[in-house]
Amino acid sequence: MIDPTNISRRMTLSSVVQAITTYGPISRASVAKMTGLSKQTVSEVVASLEQDGWVQTVGRTEGNIGRRAVVYEIVPEAALVASVDLGGTKVRVALCNLSGAVVSEIMEPTVQTGGKDVVAQIGRIIHKSASDLDISTDKIRVAVVGVPGVLDSASGNINMAPNIAGIDAIDFPTLMQESLGIEVLVENDVNLAALGEHWMTHQGEKDDLVFLSIGTGIGAGLVIGGQLVRGATGAAGEIGYLPFGADPYEAESLKVGALERMTATNAIKGHYLELTGVQKSVPEVFDAALAGDTVAQKVLAQAARYIGRAIAAIAAVVDPACVVIGGSIGARHEFTKLIEPEIRKCFPRQIPIEVSALGNHAALAGGTSIALSRLHVALFSGGLPGAKIIIPAPQLKTYQEDVA
Q1: Domains in the chain, ordered, with CATH?
Q2: Which InterPro entries match (predicted)?
Q3: Please, what sign has the CA dihedral across residues 219, 222, 228, 234?
Q4: Which of 98, 113, 182, 235 has the most CB atoms at less than 10 Å from its CB?
């Protein structure tokens, strides 16, 4: 039988922590006013949180007549979360405190042997991050790993991730959890980037947002009504498989995707090589286009045309408030300028386009937001069904300085 008094205590604790997390530094009287709880109840809860090291006093209220009230905030360093952005060429790991601030970041080339070696690499980097700061790994409570693929919830395998060898043949989440000894959540990296952009720059303003990543591959993350849309199998946003660009009925299009075959890194390099016989990297193609190379301009114009068509297709279905474009190719402003007129040619309504404010740290920010929310719920709601604590994002300028 469920103990109703225990549920009540958990709801009370959760409400108090939400108020302090959102509005701290804040007085107990203000917490009582916001939550509707009695001042005595709030005082008891805050005293317990302070004794356990989760909240701390940070001064007194200013400008009030009479006795000034003590104000409280969450202790940022009381616990940490790890956010991991796993890519085919690089892996980034950030440790963040309870305020969302980055306290450590390490980037390494992704081990090319893949599979279990990737699991071991991530575990090693997380432990090294804590060790470098002389922080006990016991303080790290939750980790979120962004992967360039789709998690199969039944097998634990990561599907549609051709850039990381062997990851589709292991139960990646379970192995990560065993390696770290803490709760590990695995999410598509573009989904995390969408959450990161929404959390850091658009929360409450543009809650219907699409994040479009263009780089080694192409994918989209959809935040609708402030919530991430994953789809029935977790593959929502795999727009590389939209059936245009290359012939969608060719066998290769079932592996890579018809749109991705014409818009991502290999497509741009391959198209330039085909037209000139010269091998150039994508940055070199962009440099050539800026220098007046008409072939390079033609290559980029074709890729932009397909991207514009893809954005129009997405907008026709979900009608987003804006489309944020990121990734090593998508984040280039000169490419965005090519995309915008292509959208206008094939879509009757204006679609606001923005370049990612977080750049290559968008997925890390999204992972941090999920990890912090999960940790706060675990710590302060005791697993209360449906419990959710919304974590305010750190200031964008501060966050960018921390991860620079």
Answers
A1: 4-74 (1.10.10.10), 77-193+361-403 (3.30.420.40), 204-358 (3.30.420.40)
A2: ATPase_NBD (IPR043129), ROK (IPR000600), WH-like_DNA-bd_sf (IPR036388), WH_DNA-bd_sf (IPR036390)
A3: negative
A4: 98
Q: Over the chain, what is the mean pLDDT?
A: 89
- CA atoms of 245 and 270, how far apart (whole Å): 14
Helix (H) or strand (E) holding 287: helix 282-290
CA dihedral of residues 250, 169, 141, 223 (deg, nearest 10)? 20
Q: What is the pTM of this model?
A: 0.88
Residues 82 and 139: beta-carbon distance below 8 Å:
no
Instruction: Of 164, 50, 162, give the one whose Cα is nearest residue 118.
Output: 164
Compute the distance between CA of residue 9 and CA of residue 363 in angstroms, rounded to an integer: 35
Tell the burial category of 181 from Cβ atoms under 10 Å away from its Cβ (0-12, 13-18, 19+): exposed
Tokens found for residue 234: 């977790």
Q: For residue 45, give the 3-state DSSP assignment.
A: helix
